[in-house]
Hints:
- This protein has helices at 2-24, 35-44, 63-70, 121-127, 168-172; strands at 101-106, 111-116, 145-148, 158-160, 175-177, 181-183, 187-191.
- By secondary structure, the chain is of the alpha+beta class.
- The chain has a domain at 80-191: Ubiquitin-like (UB roll) (Roll), CATH 3.10.20.30.
- The strands form 2 sheets. A 5-stranded mixed sheet has the order 2-1-7-3-5.
- Residues 134-137, 139-141, 143-144, 165, 177, 179 line the site of FE2/S2 (inorganic) cluster.
Amino acid sequence: MVDALGIGLGALFTLIAVSLHYTRGTEWTPTEDISEDVLERRAASVPKTDFPEPMNRSIGGGGAAAGAVAAGEGEGELEEGGAAAEGDDDPSAIPDDEAEVFEIEYTKEGQTIEVKENETLLEAGEDEGWDLPYACRQGQCISCSGHIADGGHSEDYVTHHTNEMLGDEEMSEGYTLTCVAYPTTDFTLETGESP
Ligand code: FES
């Protein structure tokens, strides 16, 4: 008896609640979604740079991101003055047994070493165990720059592959990006020197 009364009352209250809901609604309105606005405002507050951010050497460089920019349409990159971004003549593709060898004097390290035309000045120095400066290793920052002390344009001594930072003026003063510089003759190098 009691159970039947309980069930009956329960059904009655449910019916009243449902009918109230459909006749008046809950009057609840969803909060406006402003997440897109917030994201756009935040993006607008970040200053733009003309070149890709250098990658963090502590995590081994950011080849994928930097490479994606390098392989892009050339947007925002140095088209003139900077050398060798275009063209396929990559000196690192020269087979070892065909590569010429040059004598490079690293003044700060106090040694003259043999560097093949298919290896960079940075790689050759690292092979000696020297802790030379670098960040991106792709010619997209200036961390690895050095100075050729023999006078004249640095491209009289090296081929830059994918140099996107040094303009003709800096190179004419002898500056080079050691991470993308392949020797074409003997010379003297001062590492850790930037324009
Ligand atoms: S390490 Fe960035 S340009 Fe050489």
